[in-house]
Amino acid sequence: MSEMKHYITMKGTNKGIVVYLDDQCSFEILLQELEDKVKTSESSGKTEITVHSQYRYLTDDQRKDIAQLIDQYSDMSIKKIDSYVLTREESYELYDNTTVKSVIKTIRSGQVHEVKGDALVIGDVNPGGTVLATGNIFVMGKLRGIAHAGFNGDESCVVAASYMHPSQIRIANKISRAPDYDVEGSPREFAYVNSETEQIELDQLQHLQKIRPNLLDVFERGL
Amino acid sequence: MGESIVITSGKGGVGKTTTTANIGTALALLDQKVCLIDMDIGLRNLDVILGLENRIIFNLIDVLEGRCKLQSALVKDKRFDCLHLLPAAQTSDKNEVTPDGIKELIEELKPDYDYILIDCPAGIEQGYKNAVAGADKAVAITTPEKSSVRDADRIIGLLEQEGLETSPYLIINRIRKHMMDSGDMLSVDDIVSTLSIELLGIILDDEDVIRASHHGEPVAFQPDTKASISYRNIARRILGESVPLMSFDNDQGFMTKVKKLLGMK
Ligand SMILES: Nc1ncnc2c1ncn2[C@@H]1O[C@H](COP(=O)(O)OP(=O)(O)OP(=O)(O)O)[C@@H](O)[C@H]1O
Ligand SMILES: [Mg+2]
What we know:
The complex is a heterodimer. Chain A is α/β, with parallel strands linked by helices. Chain A is 22% helix and 36% strand. In chain A, the strands form 3 sheets. Chain A has a 6-stranded mixed β-sheet with strand order 5-7-9-11-14-15, with no helix packed on it. A 5-stranded mixed β-sheet of chain A has the order 6-8-10-12-13, with no helix packed on it. A 4-stranded mixed β-sheet of chain A has the order 1-2-3-4. Chain B has a single domain (3-261), classed as P-loop containing nucleotide triphosphate hydrolases (Rossmann fold), CATH 3.40.50.300. In chain B, a hairpin with a 6-residue loop joins strand 3 and strand 4. Chain A: Cell division inhibitor that blocks the formation of polar Z ring septums. Rapidly oscillates between the poles of the cell to destabilize FtsZ filaments that have formed before they mature into polar Z rings. Prevents FtsZ polymerization. Chain A: Interacts with MinD and FtsZ. Chain A: This is Probable septum site-determining protein MinC.
């Protein structure tokens, strides 16, 4: 039995415990060993682990099998399943969701401009016009309509505009709207979800780097 | 070969028909051969403003359904030989009208005229689609009210998808200077910057316009009212002349603004 045991290696890292799975053996062997290992490991209360499948691509079913096994035989829970590989589709999706899609045009009343990834609008978004993006929204012009960033649920997205005078801003499932009285817009601002107040807030564009330092980091966002 | 221009607005009652009649008249004054087409089927009134109601025998639908020749449906203006009207039907079923039918009809008119002006119905439904089908260029009309500008923006967005020769031109109608000055209406600057298309002209809100329409004689025919000068300036700009926007009073500030708008020093 002992020669089977090295298909799984546990390592303590600065990101917590990482369980590396061998990527050459069969999945059944892997599961078997994982079960043995998990059963015998004396866990000290609830710990979160990262499972790393290296160059093995895990299907959704296989991920479920692993999660179920760990859940069943230990107090540990899986924080994340990591790997070095993506399917072709996933990589297209990742590319799509993290690249900037630009248009040079005025988004007019009644028009909806929808993109995957970040939207860069070179022109105004007029009252009654809408921009939707799975990522961030940047308007090089006046934003006076509706902007919905992170519409698939990513709250870390922002909406930035040369001139901010929106009728509504939405980020993931948060909404903020202009007040009922007339207000002036302001130049160079961005909107983001403040994680403490859980609300959409506006700030000056020069503070964006401090508030969202990793805004354009593909790996931070997609993986 | 003539050029066809559709006069649109989105919102109703902002002055499409009045503008069509007046630009037509002003172009005729400049010796252009002009045909006006009333596409507001079921609600025709271009003929009334021109004072031609009693002369109508056939209409657009009669032509499309082959009940008469195109030539015999055209009504000649009282004042100008070179100005003709193709009236809308007042009653007929508008389902007979298709974009292709209109396109064909306008192509047939083009060799005989310098300009063909199409009076579009309000809205963005079938009537709008038919009216736009045969147009080479488009004009969007708005008043200085938010709702009207909003609808003009919508129409401009749709017109931009039509593959016209140029992007639409803007006319701002029914300007009330004191309300603009007091900030109770959008300013010319605001409107032009929101809609971001080329400004073809501005027209005051003026009783003369209403009075003239009432008497079936478009105001553009009069020699020297402010409204008639505005319409005639628009006609000259359509012909390619560069005519500065006229000032409505001696307010230096306004003129400076207008000049700035036109990119002049
Ligand atoms: N510059 C103006 N000054 C004063 N009254 C005007 C002016 N322009 C238009 N009007 C008036 O506004 C009313 C509506 O004008 P008109 O019928 O031309 O609008 P329309 O856009 O064609 O309307 P619809 O959408 O019903 O076809 C008319 O009573 C007309 O006399
Ligand atoms: Mg009309």
